[in-house]
Amino acid sequence: MTQRIRITDVSPRDGLQAEKAIVATVDKARLVELVQRTGVDEVEVSSFVSPRWVPQLGDAADLFDLIAQGKPDGVCYSALVPNGKGLEAVLAVNHAAREAHGIERLIDKVAVFVAASEGFSLKNTNGTIEEVLKRFEPLIPRAHEHGLMVRGYISCIVRCPFDGDVAPVAVGDVSTALLNLGVDELDLGDTIGAATPETIDPVIMEVIDRLDGRATNDFGDPTLTLHLHDTFGHARDCVQMALELGVRSFDSSAGGLGGCPYASTETTRAPGNISTGVLVDAIRSSGYETAVDDAALFEASEYAAGLIS
Ligand code: HMG
Ligand code: MG
Questions:
Q1: Exposed/middle/buried for residue 33 (C-beta within 10 Å: 0-12, 13-18, 19+)
Q2: Out of 26, 85, 114, 298, which residue is the most buried by the measure of CB atoms under 10 Å away?
Q3: Which residues lie at CB < 5 A from ion ligand 2?
Q4: Model's pTM, two decimal places?
């Protein structure tokens, strides 16, 4: 039987967080609706971060309110949280959806994020790696108490826009720290699209080693996800290398939207995520399946591209 690969579409979050123009909440809701129709397993809807830092996503609670009643069975909704304040906002959204619409859990998963490099950690989250990890200590058990899954992102797994090359062992050490804190899934972010199959191979092997044989978690999902940005056109080859190494879960964005505002330098703007179309094609040509419907993906991708043009 052909193995199905898990896909998270991050376009409403990573796709829109770095756009100069702030997209209207109703248009984001339409994007979520189109993206979830494509057949992806998870939609990363927004972030509960400081609106001073990312004003583009300051409407996260309103967006969830708008999409609450259209959530299909079997699709996971997730959101980024950088600290306890973000988690409390997620719990408040879930509480409101339960009271208003009887939805047991609108947001299924929270994603914490930390960098493998000190430079990016400071720029993106105003703290050292150690300080950022400390913020997650009370957050993760509280998320679990409320039945939420927890994804742990690690950014700059190959190169940092401020510190340069990142050693695989540094990614491994942050992975171990996140696993010890109780995350259910590690998500490796090539934040600036620097990876090639040759440079991503040792990083994935290092992290698989740290996972110590745990390929799936208590929720039955893969413990390891790959989050590629596609600056130099290597993302497709990296997907194929990752599949060979055993990775069974990937992030992408409809229409290739995306980029982290704090990964841009004065001369280089942070690039978009790998597009869902490229990801699906890479998966299929490696002999694996996805649940993505091509016509629905075309519609979502066209709409996504139109939002930022
Ligand atoms: P800070 O300034 O040190 O935070 O930022 P603070 O605790 O001092 O608070 C400052 C203000 O923010 C206060 O408001 C807080 O209440 C408020 P004031 O009293 O001044 O009015 N605040 C919040 N408001 C709403 N929700 C919150 C929250 N927290 C504080 N959760 C902080 C530290 C982590 C908050 C900040 O740096 C931040 O929000 N960073 C987020 C940056 C971000 O979202 N980056 C993009 C996502 S990561 C990414 O894109 C990479 C990824 O795609 C993977 C990859 O590609 O590698 C995931
Ligand atoms: Mg990203």
A1: middle
A2: 114
A3: 14
A4: 0.96
